[in-house]
Design goal:
Helix content: 25-40%
Largest sheet: 6 strands, mixed
Number of helices: 9
Number of strands: 11
Strand content: 25-35%
């Protein structure tokens, strides 16, 4: 078995007295696409925020390949990597938000080039060449010099996917990438993610698009109440769920 690209083990997270993640263990193999589904407030977005170090875990371990980003000692104290080691770990993942999070004052090209130049200290000419190729791949040719407010929502989301890919990450995280888009633009973005899946890009996608999860994911994870209730083959979980909570949730999506 290949080493997992990403793994969290026995992770818990609370905000005050509100426990949002309870003993979560999840690992992702190279080239695997994992879709996370479940009701709002079930812990899906917090899981991604903890995975990408935007929030610190309260217990458990978090790793990217051979880099252990967070560990918990016998006394229950959590320690995170620092400095260069943490920067190295962060370069192994990309995160695409539901609200795009592009820099509003920067052109599309500059948005995509910024992190590889500033964070990874890479050669500007090489980064620009790759950025222009990503722009073409995302169907955004002609938008290079536009700023985000001049783009449609679908174009902004595709630009944010290009920005995440520019760091050449080992895994991409998507937090409900189509929730802010109307159906037509949703189709544009899902088409791009399907293309990435076909190229064996490793991804974790939090989504409400059940048909998309069934067609594109290698594994579906159903979360509710801060726990992984059920996971497995998409066709199996979505068509023949074993848990009552999964069945109740999916009943709302059946036509």
């Amino acid at each position: 078995m290949a080493e997992p690209v990403f793994a969290m083990e026995h992770v818990s997270k609370a905000f005050g007295g509100n426990v949002v993640l309870r003993d979560i263990s999840l690992s992702v193999e190279p080239g695997e696409v994992v879709a996370i589904i479940g009701p709002s407030g079930g812990g899906k977005s917090t899981l991604l925020r903890c995975a990408t170090t935007l929030e610190q875990i309260d217990s458990g371990t978090l790793s990217y390949g051979d880099l252990q980003v967070a560990t918990t000692d016998a006394s229950g104290n959590v320690a995170y990597l620092k400095g260069d080691a943490l920067r190295r770990a962060k370069s192994r993942f990309g995160l695409v938000f539901q609200s795009y999070n592009l820099f509003p004052h920067m052109s599309v090209l500059k948005n995509i080039m910024d992190a590889p130049i500033v964070v990874q200290k890479r050669d500007r000419a090489e980064v620009e060449r790759e950025a222009r190729a990503l722009i073409a791949k995302m169907g955004l040719t002609g938008t290079e010099d536009k700023v985000p407010c001049q783009l449609s929502g679908g174009q902004q989301q595709r630009a944010s996917i290009a920005r995440a890919l520019a760091l050449n990450p080992d895994i991409l995280f998507f937090d409900e990438p189509t929730s802010a888009l109307d159906p037509e633009l949703t189709g544009e973005v899902l088409k791009v993610i399907r293309q990435l899946a076909a190229e064996d890009i490793t991804m974790i996608i939090v989504t409400h698009e059940m048909a998309f999860a069934r067609d594109v994911a290698d594994r579906v994870v159903f979360m509710d109440g801060g726990m992984i209730v059920e996971e497995g083959d998409p066709a199996e979980v979505l068509a023949n769920p074993k848990q009552e909570r999964t069945r109740a949730f999916l009943a709302r999506y059946s036509g």
